[in-house]
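Attaching the record inline, Q. Sequence:
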Amino acid sequence: MHRAPQRRVPLMTDHDDDETGTMPGIAITEINEQYADAARTDEICRRLRREFTERGVPLVPLTASPPPGAKSGGAAAIDTIAAVLASSPVVAAFAEGVFTWLAAREGRTIKITVAGRSVELSHPTREEEQRLIEWLTSDPGTGPDEHS
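Structure, as predicted:
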């Protein structure tokens, strides 16, 4: 049984780095596992959150932007996690968590969006992990030419 595609809504975070309002790098991750229903998706998302938390990657709560005319607030999709990438060690820990999670089961994909640019990964190799770290720390105008 295939999982029905979910409607994506713009996401906002409640987290600012300092009083000036500048925000550290926020990585929005959207996960998918082939044939996963909502309960399974919730379970695997919790596992990825745990991977990040155990590695010291700070997570921030997400709220969904409501459609026009709807009440404000609301929860983000159950398959979405936001991580604060404030230093090189955190970026490395984030990438390690992503690839550990991907390697745990065939058929998983993860889409990572930072500063308006995205990459989708599904094949956990050390080379791809290094490319992800380089992409996460590169200028927004640069990065990998292909999505895995």
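Confidence is low (pLDDT under 50) at residues 1-23, 66-76, 142-148. DSSP finds three helices and seven strands in the chain.

More tomorrow.
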